[in-house]
Amino acid sequence: MVQKTPTLKGKTVAITRAKQQAQETAALIEQMGGKPYIIPTLEFKIPSDLSQVKDFIKELQEGKVDYTIFMSVNALKYLFEASKSLGLKNILSKGLEKTTIVAVGPRTAKELENRQFSVKVLPEEYSSEGVAKTLQNLGVLGKTIFIPRARGASPTLKMKLEEMGGKIMEIYVYEQQTPKSANLVSKFIEDLAAGKIDAIVFGSSQSVKNMFQIFTEKIPTAKLREMLKRLTIVAIGPTTAKTLNEMGLKVDVTPKRYTFKEALNALAIYWDS
Question: pTM to 2 decimals?
Fold first, then answer.
């Protein structure tokens, strides 16, 4: 029996990723025969205070960091942007060669390898829980672990590693904020009401929270919730799903591997089942 290729033919799928990331997911939707609908709920920027980054680079340079964990491509990108603005890009590169690099998933690992860094640890499960389980097996007691990431990111990983006896430092290399896109919001509400959107994909808890913050300036929360309930709701992982549940929304699809490609495949299979 020939297995059918998952398809999104004839379906419009909304993406809540930041504008600079959404194009990649949009291309995947188009490849699967669907129509992407970009409605960014996130924007990123480098923090004004880069003293944490400067201290981290110094620790790397001195060989004092046992593990450096990259939880996203953005974490890597903005760490290097911050180091460049500090005039420490080359020192950062040399310092990263002295630490064991952990990537949360294959996309992040590929980006690191593109920059000529060797990824020593890649978990089977692409999540905070997956990273924690893998490092638990390797042993983190007394180890110094740095996590470059977004301000306001989930504290789950830090807490789990601290419970194992690790010394954990989170370095905020970028900040997430709500975009100002009043016209896009109004259009999305109109298209939502008109039944022109079939599904919506959330890639993080922050994207969920920001959507409610942005949209409830235009319509009541209860109305937004009811409108979103008409869609097939996709959460990229359990933490995002939990936030959606807390907002009163049922999650229809969560992929086994927490990537956008897997999420879209899972959505196609869900519709076909």
Answer: 0.80
